[in-house]
Amino acid sequence: GAGDTGSRLFGLWYYNDGRVLYQRIGTTSFNLFPTNKLQLGKWYHIVATSYNNDHTLYVNSEQIGKTQAVPTWSNLNHPITLAYSNFNSYGKLDIAFVRVYSRVINPIEVADSYVRARSKVSI
């Protein structure tokens, strides 16, 4: 994620109950929090995209949630953090590959990145 509790450019969170949250907090906000649960000890490919007002969350190249919101994309001067939010505890997980794009990737590119990542990670 990037930001703090009052203003978050983006946040991608894993909860202890197995759910994934994709969110923005600011003048307008959204919380994309599907009920799909992941299992501890398994490898997952997670992608969150935002394009205009559409925000989508994918797990293993399958869309698990989508919402529409008009959050302001302000330029916060916050670093991107991995497995730590600057206001919470450190995550206890393994992160294999991280990519941040300056453009939205389409569902075909999401599927392609999933196939490529799986070929590099043993489960």
Describe what you observe in this structure.
This protein is mainly beta. It contains one helix and seven strands; from the N terminus they run E-E-E-E-E-E-E-H. Helices cover 11% and strands 30% of the residues. A four-stranded antiparallel β-sheet has the order 1-2-3-4, with no helix packed on it. A three-stranded antiparallel β-sheet has the order 5-6-7, with no helix packed on it.
Write the layout of secondary structure elements.
Layout: E1 2-3, E2 8-14, E3 20-25, E4 30-32, E5 46-51, E6 54-59, E7 62-68, H1 107-120
Antiparallel strand pairs: 1-2, 2-3, 3-4, 5-6, 6-7
Number of helices: 1
What's the N-to-C terminus distance? 26 Å
Overall average pLDDT: 78
What is the overall silhouette? globular
**How do the strands line up in the largest sheet?**
1-2-3-4
Outline the biggest β-sheet. Answer: 4 strands, antiparallel
Percentage beta strand? 25-35%
**Unreliable residue runs:** none
List keywords for this structure.
123 residues; mainly beta; 30% strand; four-stranded antiparallel β-sheet; 11% helix; single chain; three-stranded antiparallel β-sheet
